[in-house]
Amino acid sequence: MAALRITVIGTGYLGATHAAAMAELGFEVLALDVVREKIEMLERGETPMYEPGLEELLRRHVAGFEGTTGRLRFTQDWAEVGAFGDVHFVCVNTPQKHGEYACDMSYVESALSSLAPHLTRPALVVGKSTVPVGSADRLSRMIAELAPAGADAELAWNPEFLREGFAVQDTLHPDRIVVGVRSERAEKLLREVYATPVGEGSPFVVTDFPTAELVKTSANSFLATKISFINAMAEMCEAAGGDVVKLAEAIGHDDRIGKKFLRAGIGFGGGCLPKDIRAFMARAGELGADQALTFLREIDSINMRQRGQMVELARQALGGGSFLGKRVAVLGATFKPDSDDVRDSPALNVAGQIHLQGGQVTVYDPKGMENARRVFPTLGYADSALEAVRGADVVLHLTEWREFRELDPARLGEVAKARLILDGRNALDPELWRKAGWTYRAMGRPTA
Ligand code: UGA
């Protein structure tokens, strides 16, 4: 049997990574994006975002480079996509709707309505985008109405669990593959696509449509729950004089709880967790799942409160008055390390709040400067941690880059106005800083 031919629709974070990974697995891949610039960039082997290993992977497969497999090509022609693919992966984004909690399905709907009329031969359309439960059922009816191939064109749902910063690794070696299918043929095709990772041990979970959709949103909600749980415990620790870092370590020794995602601090951000939990809330409300809605709302509000708590911690540390005339150094702008993404970044949010309250804020981030400047041009920016800290009344550590853990507190102490550091990520070594003469404070930890 001839090898399957794969198309990928949407070449953002998810699509670009998925397309390159499919080529790496040996498939011929044709990727489409409606934005020409995105395609031109990928054709040059470049990515619009910082993602370790992705450019190398692209350059191994994008047609046109010397020595590449040439298995990955790009197009803007829907008819070419329809004619080429046996399996079409839909990887467009589903952002939060402006001014609402629900997610915006317009990119998914537009991708499917553009593709379906070109499905003239047997094909499997596989949704990977994160969508509200019930969407796959609706979209499958849309394909049935529009595809000339009739019943030979069908839909499956295959959510994606990749993490920014680990996108390549997570796509090539997923810790599970979940497929929502309605036919044996769809399952068989997806088993063929994922034969390599499954052969290497990735579990392959077959479900119906709603379960596949819910697996994705509930996985992200569970991660969010862990973070908000530990942040609630940080509040308890502060009230009672305990240490949340020790507490997380101790409860994490229980395998049923686990050590991961129990780092207290300014909370979760990024393009996924916050919007997914809100879209999940909106959907729970529509479906009348009131307990789920109430539960999720608390997770979200604990998370948002952490940012304000950090601002308060800074205010108190500076004497409790206004930020006017205070120089505040902010280390970190991205929503997490090893990424240049500042979408819904808690770090940038805290920096912004202090700036709006009159503080003189100077930000440094190893990879996120360009994006941070774009979304928040009125903040001050420095080219290094040392420059950001120069003359500062207080230093805020807000994204836990390795570079910040490796800073020399003694050297920074020479340039800071006051040796006061607030660790919003509980990721620095308090003893190291205290030994160098700094006052170290963090959320959920006792003041020494
Ligand atoms: C998240 C999920 O981890 C992925 O599995 C999922 O596929 C992805 O969303 C998605 O839906 O596309 P990502 O957004 O890359 O991945 O970020 P995470 O590593 O989950 O971190 C999210 C936020 O939680 C960050 O702001 C991080 O600083 C924060 N966090 C994480 C904490 O505050 N404490 C922790 O203990 C862990």
TrEMBL record:
Catalysed transformations (reactions): UDP-alpha-D-glucose + 2 NAD(+) + H2O = UDP-alpha-D-glucuronate + 2 NADH + 3 H(+)
Domain UDP-glucose/GDP-mannose dehydrogenase C-terminal: 329-430
SMART domains xrefs: UDPG_MGDP_dh_C
Coiled-coil zones: none
Keywords tagged on the record: NAD, Oxidoreductase
Active site: 272 (nucleophile)
Pathway stated in the Swiss-Prot or TrEMBL entry: Nucleotide-sugar biosynthesis; UDP-alpha-D-glucuronate biosynthesis; UDP-alpha-D-glucuronate from UDP-alpha-D-glucose: step 1/1
EC code(s) of this entry: 1.1.1.22
Pfam families: UDPG_MGDP_dh, UDPG_MGDP_dh_C, UDPG_MGDP_dh_N
One of the protein's GO biological processes: UDP-glucuronate biosynthetic process
GO molecular function annotation: NAD binding; UDP-glucose 6-dehydrogenase activity
Residue sites binding substrate per the record: 161-164, 216, 261-265, 269, 336
Binding annotation for NAD(+): 33, 38, 94, 130, 164, 275, 343
Source domain of life: Bacteria
Enzyme category, top tier: oxidoreductase
Family: Belongs to the UDP-glucose/GDP-mannose dehydrogenase family.
Annotated protein name in UniProt: UDP-glucose 6-dehydrogenase
